Amino acid sequence: MTWQKMLYSCCFLTVCLTCVLAKPPPEKDRVYHGQDLSDHPHDDKQDFQYDHEAFLGEEEASRFDELPPEESKRRLGKIVDRIDRDGDGFVTQPELMDWIKHTQNRHIHEDVNKKWKEYDKNNDGRISWEEYKNANYGDEIADVENKEMYEKMMERDERRFKTANQDGDMFATREEFTAFLHPEEFDFMKDLVVTETIEDIDKNGDGFVEVDEYLGDMYSPAFGGTEPEWLKNERQQFLDFRDLNKDGKMDRDEIQHWILPSGYDHAEVESKHLLFESDKDKDEKITKQEILDNWNMFVGSQATNYGEDLKKNHDEL
Question: How far is it, in rounded angstroms, from Cα 136 to Cα 4?
Answer without folding.
Answer: 9
